[in-house]
Design brief:
Shape: globular
Strand order of the largest sheet: 1-2-3-5-6-9
Radius of gyration: 14 Å
Strand content: 35-45%
Largest sheet: 6 strands, mixed
């Protein structure tokens, strides 16, 4: 599934009034936006009750959200499930991400298996705002 297909599903749900468009800059720290929120999209090969979030992406996106008065959503698609967290709300309730350094593949977008040290945290599915099988929407 492509980011654009996931964005279409976010607009169908609708998440935060929908009307998401892909970010204009391909090097932007987030993948989609509307007037009230930004969205980071991750595609995972397997579903887990705990999802990783990179501290670097978290910091860039939460700062953008606060500086622009928008909400930051973190979206994970692991076929056929879509899970969404409201990171801005998690920050307000002092969610414990459990930040730690961990060896992770450098990028999930390419066939690069080189592992590097990354600072990562964990998002529990019980704290998500949406977690559903979306195979009927695909």
């Amino acid at each position: 599934m492509t980011d654009e297909q996931i964005i279409n599903i976010l607009n169908f749900i609708p998440l935060e009034n929908g009307n998401y468009i892909p970010s204009k800059n391909k090097y932007e720290s987030y993948d989609a936006e509307n007037f009230t929120s930004i969205v980071e999209i991750k595609k995972r090969s397997s579903y887990y009750d705990l999802s990783l979030i990179e501290k670097l992406k978290y910091t860039q996106n939460i700062n953008t959200a606060y500086n622009t008065g928008r909400t930051f959503y973190y979206v994970v698609f692991s076929d056929p499930r879509l899970t969404i967290w409201d990171i801005t709300w998690l920050d307000r309730v002092n969610y414990k991400y459990g930040w730690e350094n961990s060896l992770q593949v450098a990028t999930t977008e390419f066939k690069n298996n080189i592992k590097i040290n990354k600072n990562v945290g964990y998002l529990n599915v019980t704290r998500s705002i949406f977690n559903a099988d979306i195979s009927n929407l695909i």
